[in-house]
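Take a specimen:
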Amino acid sequence: MADLTEINRKHFDKVASNHQNDFGELINTVIAELKSRRGWISPKLTDTPNTDPAASDAVRLLDYACGAGTVSKALAPYATQTIGLDLSANMVSEYNKAAQEMFGSHNAGPARMEGFQHNLLGDSTALPSGTLAPFDIIVIGMALHHVADAGGLLQRFGDLLKPRGVCVVIDTVPGSARLGEGGSDLMKEGGVFGTIAKQGFAEAEVQELYEGAGMGEFDYAVFEQPFRFTLYGEQCSSRGFIARGVKIGLV
């Protein structure tokens, strides 16, 4: 759905500089949850990763719809190389600022963490050679609800995962949003509703997406801590979940 893609691109270009303030509490919650579940996501995310991308035990992580780097801030220190992809050029700029802050002079040739503007569903934008080499782990955090073809995207993730690679989805539980007084009207005025393809995903829906993408060993959990955030001055909240699936195939 090209129109939704462009709507999202323009919206997140516009809000990139304020995103971390408005969604700061939600971002901190996601980072904390990812760090606490690192071993559940993959035992490959170790305290002392091999930093040589050519090494046989190198761990490649894809942070898709990376925004300013929430997922990468939690997990990139435990991976060999982390790639961030996002529709928004301004978000990618924020992501690469975060990469420099995290890794400094160590984030060079080849970078431990680097972001690019790219859409896996129909984008012909060229990427540096090897950018989309198979990944051990792919995470999409709080963005699947913006994607018109969620099943198609998970199938692309399956294509990009190594056999037995792990795909993680973080998103919202349907019907859990609490927008505060006047929140719905403000969201409409601000154009946020126009960026959303689906108001969250039930567990059975997520499992069906994974199975359609050839992934098994499905697991799903709802976070105890609610997501809290600000939209156009309104204090809002929702419930979040994390799901995990493994690409079926031999190592």
Notes: The CA atoms of residues 217 and 245 lie 6 Å apart. The two ends are 35 Å apart (CA to CA).
